[in-house]
Structures are given as structure tokens and as C-alpha cells.
Amino acid sequence: MSRVPFGVLISGSGTNLQALIDAAASPDYPGRLAVVVSNRRDALGLERARSAGIPARWIPHRKKAREDFEREVLDVLDEHDVEWVALAGFMRMLTPTFLDAFPGRLLNIHPSLLPAFPGLNGPRQALERGVRIAGATVHFVIPEMDAGPILLQGAVPVLDGDTEADLKERILSVEHRIYPRALALALSGQAQLEGQRVRLPDDQPGWLWDAGGGGGRPVRGGGPESRP
Question: Which of 54, 74, 118, 218 has its CA 20 to 30 A from that of 87?
């Protein structure tokens, strides 16, 4: 099986990166993690990549024009023949020039059930608004922040007495399960962009419900009849 080379951009500890490293270690996974790039030298995710034998590069963004920084990143991705890019805690907005280098081939994961609570502090926003269900979303990246077509979502309950840290941990757990799955659907061509929607095969789950135990239950489709 031909495996699609993909790159991951990070800025921090890289727990979602670790989930992608673990998934890509399987010979059956449709992608090969070709390189990890961080804009922060102290990002723990760089060590995660190196420990797994994956090329890891630090490209500082300070005291540079955004276009110059992105050009350096694109050069590294091109050097490793990257065809898809996954953002995993990458704390930089990307310009249309960067997005045009990977049209329809750039994913991000966000800690809320988009379109609710875009931007920073999704779990905090969920608690402040008193929602009963929170979660995470894998979406295609477009110039507008957290507004791209949704590929896959994972939902978790918001429990009485939850702190922001409690909810962040519960959401992060479901992120680690849906991101490798969503990327696999994209890399294998099973996720098809149709305007502002993503079409998945009938036998693939559209979202995942996790009641808090860590196992999660895939749910097919997206209508009310599919709710847990």
C-alpha cells in the first residue's frame, strides 16, 4: 500500500502529535509521518518526534515577516515531499499563501463542537455558557479561523462540578481518538469536500460519543436519530 506523506505543525507538548505518531506507526495506516515542524524551540512535541525517529525541525517565527516564516516552513515540507498537513496545537494563523500550497489538504483540530466556541479557550467558553455536551472538531483549514468544513467530531458530557481543567482533559482524550481517524479518512480519499460539507462513506462514523470512560462509541450519520 502506498502511504501518503504528511507533515505536522506544532507549538507545544504535542499530545495530539503523539496520537498521530502512534497511528502512523501501523503499516496499515494510509499516511506516513514525514516531518514535524515547530515554531517553538522548547516544544516537547519535537522530542516526541525525534524519539520516534521522525525528522523534527524548529523554525523560529520571531523577528520575521509572516510570509518569510511560512516560506521556510513550506521549504521544509517540500524537502520531505509532504502532501498533507495536520495542525496539532500550532498557535499561528496561516496566510492564504500557505493554504494555497495545500488546497483542501490541511486539517486542524479544535477543542469545541464547532461552529460553537471558536478561538481560544473552547472548554472555558463551554463552561461559561453552561452547555451539557462539549467536544472536539477536526476540520479543513480555510483563511477564517475555525470555520472550515467539518470532517469529524467527538462529543463528551459536561459534568456537574467540572473545572476547566477537568473538561479540557476529557476533551483532549477524545481528540486523541478522532484526529488519527479523521486524518486517515482524508489521506485515503474517503473524506470528500463538497462545498462547505464533507461527505463520508455510509459505513464510516460521522462523530464519536464518549461518556467519559475513554472508550467512545462511533455514531454514523448526523441526524437526530443518531444521537446517543
Answer: 218
